[in-house]
């Protein structure tokens, strides 16, 4: 009889021990309506992470808007441990950690190749800051895509933004449009389409793929495809969660997320080209919804204005902001990215 009593208890104990070994990961993702990167790359990756890595983990993935958390709170959420892994929206969280803006100042990353080089050069410093200030490990960064200008009134170039209200993604973009005589307005992505339709803002800056997913072409007439930034994003994991994994497990997890980052870099470039086709009604549109925006021709003067913005606008203003929280911020940027630019 004693054996009959003890055996089920032993089995139950072993079962509980096995369950205790499973690591639960709560992942806070990109907004549900932000586009195909979140829908076709990020969410499937995390939902299949246990199978992909062979790790004994259970993953719960929630888009940031579904979770009811402001995307500006990504780093605070990481530090609190409320979520274990966060898909950081760089521009949005940069108010809590200004060094992140140094990865993607206006005028810095006007192409994917430039963006990869500059982000690689400075992401190590950003990772150190996130570690020391938010108890988290940066696992890589990736671009949503070139940030271009969508307007309800017809425009022909950047000069036509003077006097208009422009939705911007971060302070660097706000400073840039201010120099153009426009007013930069920050607002969540999900509110932009209606704000354009109602005239709360005249223009808005984002990537063509995100604009297509968000229905922006329904409320605008013109797209000016001059790349101001690449909209840097990234993945970070709470350091206490990271410590739950063995070194071998950490390597598997980091390697898998590194592959995701590389995949998104390539996919982002594909999406940009396709979304431009879709937004302007080209028959080459494959992935998005077709619209009929007018594509303004980018003048050489606009390209020059954007190129000059790094040294004249975005770097000086950002450096003061970043140096205020980290004395070595600008110095490190100039030794890494700045060296590549002659700044």
From TrEMBL:
<dbReference type="InterPro" id="IPR038404">
    <property type="entry name" value="TRAP_DctP_sf"/>
</dbReference>
<protein>
    <submittedName>
        <fullName>TRAP-type C4-dicarboxylate transport system, substrate-binding protein</fullName>
    </submittedName>
</protein>
<keyword id="KW-0732">Signal</keyword>
<dbReference type="Pfam" id="PF03480">
    <property type="entry name" value="DctP"/>
</dbReference>
<feature type="signal peptide">
    <location>
        <begin position="1"/>
        <end position="20"/>
    </location>
</feature>
<dbReference type="GO" id="GO:0055085">
    <property type="term" value="P:transmembrane transport"/>
</dbReference>
<dbReference type="InterPro" id="IPR018389">
    <property type="entry name" value="DctP_fam"/>
</dbReference>
């Amino acid at each position: 009889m004693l054996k009959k009593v003890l055996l089920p208890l032993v089995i139950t104990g072993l079962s509980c021990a096995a369950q205790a070994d499973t690591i639960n990961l709560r992942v806070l993702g990109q907004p549900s309506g932000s586009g195909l990167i979140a829908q076709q790359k990020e969410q499937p990756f995390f939902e299949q992470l246990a199978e992909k890595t062979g790790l004994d983990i259970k993953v719960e993935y929630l888009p940031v808007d579904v979770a009811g958390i402001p995307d500006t709170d990504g780093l605070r959420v990481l530090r609190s441990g409320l979520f274990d892994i966060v898909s950081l929206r760089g521009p949005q969280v940069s108010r809590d950690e200004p060094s992140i803006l140094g990865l993607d100042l206006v005028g810095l990353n006007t192409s994917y190749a430039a963006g990869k080089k500059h982000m690689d050069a400075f992401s190590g410093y950003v990772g150190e800051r996130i570690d020391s200030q938010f108890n988290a490990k940066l696992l890589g960064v990736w671009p949503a895509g070139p940030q271009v200008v969508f307007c309800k009134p017809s425009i022909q170039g950047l000069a036509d933004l003077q006097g208009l209200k422009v939705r911007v993604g971060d302070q660097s973009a706000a400073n840039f449009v201010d120099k153009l005589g426009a007013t930069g307005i920050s607002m969540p992505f999900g509110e932009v389409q209606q704000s354009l339709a109602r005239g709360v803002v005249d223009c808005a800056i984002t990537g063509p793929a995100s604009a297509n997913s968000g229905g922006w072409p329904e409320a605008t007439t013109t797209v000016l495809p001059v790349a101001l930034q690449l909209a840097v994003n990234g993945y970070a994991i709470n350091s206490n969660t990271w410590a739950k994994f063995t070194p071998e497990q950490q390597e598997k997890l980091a390697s898998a997320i590194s592959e995701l980052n590389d995949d998104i870099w390539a996919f982002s470039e594909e999406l940009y080209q396709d979304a431009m086709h879709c937004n302007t009604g080209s028959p080459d549109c494959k992935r998005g919804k077709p619209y009929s925006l007018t594509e303004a021709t980018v003048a050489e003067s606009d390209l020059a204005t954007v190129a000059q913005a790094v040294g004249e606008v975005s770097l000086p203003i950002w450096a003061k902001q970043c140096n205020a929280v980290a004395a070595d911020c600008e110095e490190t940027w100039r030794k890494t990215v700045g060296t590549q630019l002659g700044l």
